[in-house]
């Protein structure tokens, strides 16, 4: 009697098992057609890369972003020009944490699409996937729809060389950046690398000025540098009041002010993020849904 696990029969058996497992596994979601949604997330690990559509982008209304009027107007106008087919600049939003950098990108995208429905797609690429930017660009190059590539909290450390992919997308390469593609990034650092890293490379280099020029020059490739700075007490309270009015939270002004200040002291900071966290706590205590 032939052994069922002998070499002649083992191959077909394994093939049948593999086929059965493939039938049981859920199919991969289809690659996102840019007409499916206004927001997408890039997943380079999938075969050939995949654009996953986001039907509801997590965002706040542009009017709720307080204390950043100047940079808001600049980015909104830049995005409007891009949506209208006019020249526009890549943008780097840098500075203090929690002051609305990523919220502003998503709010400007929503505001422009409200004016020109479906004009621009927003495609998020994660920091760890920056090296796949050339592949994403190849995927988008034949597309007709205007798209903003968005990377939140972008920075580079140590021997990380993925910034070279970003440099090629922003300005370099024989083909250059397609006219229908724009890149927005947020970072806590203006040059996207820590100060001690710059100083260390300068102190150990034969030519200190050239040692960091390649990495520091990355930020020069953004046409817009929009700085975000920590807010004062009155700006913080204006943020809280704007959220409270928008969500119709029933709270007396003086009580709202006192509780908001106490909340900021327990956090040791004042920012848009802290204001939003306070509003979530207040709404929860009042039994009010934030919708």
Brief overview, please?
By secondary structure, this protein is α/β, with parallel strands linked by helices. The chain has 11 helices and 7 strands. The chain has helices spanning 7-24, 69-83, 101-115, 133-140, 163-170, 195-204, 208-211, 213-220, 233-246, 253-267, 272-286; strands spanning 39-43, 50-54, 91-95, 120-124, 146-151, 181-187, 224-228.
Structure description:
By secondary structure, the chain is α/β, with parallel strands linked by helices. The protein folds into two domains: 39-228, P-loop containing nucleotide triphosphate hydrolases (Rossmann fold), CATH 3.40.50; 233-286. Helix content is 45%, strand content 13%. A seven-stranded mixed beta sheet has the order 2-1-4-5-6-3-7, with helices on both faces. The chain is globular. Mean pLDDT is 82; it is low at 26-30 and 196-206.
Provide the succession of SSEs.
Answer: HEEHEHEHEHEHHHEHHH
Query: Which band does the percent of strand residues land in?
Result: 5-15%
Q: How would you characterize the largest beta sheet?
A: 7 strands, mixed
**Going by CATH, what is the homologous superfamily of the largest domain?**
P-loop containing nucleotide triphosphate hydrolases
Number of helices: 11
Would you state the CATH class of the largest domain?
A: Alpha Beta
Averaged pLDDT: 82
Please tell me the CATH architecture of the largest domain by its name: 3-Layer(aba) Sandwich
Radius of gyration: 24 Å
Which word captures the global form? globular
CATH topology of the largest domain: Rossmann fold
Number of domains: 2
Percent range of helical residues: 40-55%
The poorly predicted ranges are 26-30, 196-206
Spatial order of strands in the largest sheet: 2-1-4-5-6-3-7
Beta strand count: 7
Distance between the termini: 70 Å
Structural class, judged by helices and strands?
Answer: alpha/beta
